[in-house]
Amino acid sequence: MADEVVLLDFWVSPFGQRCRIALAEKGVEYEYSEQRLAGEKSDLLLRSNPVHKKIPVLLHAGRPVCESLIILEYIDETWPESEKKSPRRLLPDDPYARARARFWADYVDKKLFDCQTRLWKLRAGEASHEQAKRDMVEVLETLEAELGEREFFGGEAFGYLDVVLVPFVAWFHAYEKLGGFAMAEICPRLVAWGERCKEKDSVAKTLTDPEKVYEFALYLKDKFGAK
Ligand SMILES: N[C@@H](CCC(=O)N[C@@H](CS)C(=O)NCC(=O)O)C(=O)O
Question: Name one GO cellular component term (predicted).
Fold first, then answer.
């Protein structure tokens, strides 16, 4: 009980999924608590994250940790030793490599998520939607270039930046449908990297079925009057 771990989450959230993947990589047992985001939020969520009122929240021994990138670092520092998983640390040991990994994680959250949101929030055919499509292609090409010829963003081993980005692989299908482009043409290495990541149990058991993600994106489109 003193060490109880609970994750407040929402099934399709890439931010929540990265926490689930990190916990699985470390072999940490936890209780998953699905939250209602439309309508009234639970008292537990509002009490645990009174500033942003968002999931994910990691409750460790009753104490909340908010914001997924901060949660990942907390998980990495709290459970550094994981006997069966590799790597033992998600973040690299080298300070410069750590700084770079954090830079790209920030890029994913600022740029990729922004473009994704604009793809479903804006009405197809409008100039702003066309711009969102162009921006998305640029972001994907930039991530493709950063990956280069490496197996993983973490190098030979699946690491922090892989955990940060991999939940978005389940959205690639929705990007293609809503953006009208082929991921394999824009970023073939990123697509192959996504497939490699899915060979890991932690990822395979966490990522949402791409068709369900697309249905969810259509639901959001409808909700925001952009259908
Ligand atoms: N920067 C936050 C983003 C979290 C976030 O956007 N969560 C969404 C679900 S994907 C949420 O809780 N939305 C509810 C709301 O905005 O009211 C993180 O990395 O944890």
Answer: cytosol
Of the candidates 2, 11, 3, the residue with the CA atom closest to the CA atom of residue 167: 11
**E runs forming strands in 46-166:** 57-60, 63-66
Q: Please give the Cα distance from 224 to 227 (Å, whole number).
A: 8
Q: Which domains does the chain have, with CATH numbers?
A: 5-78 (3.40.30.10), 95-223 (1.20.1050.10)
226: helix, strand or coil: coil
What lines the ligand 1 site, CB under 6 Å?
10, 13, 15, 37, 53-56, 67-69
Q: Are 201 and 141 in contact (CB under 8 A)?
A: no
- Asked if 15 and 55 touch (Cβ cutoff 8 Å), the reply is yes
State pLDDT tens for residues 30-55: 999 999 998 899 999 999 999 999 99
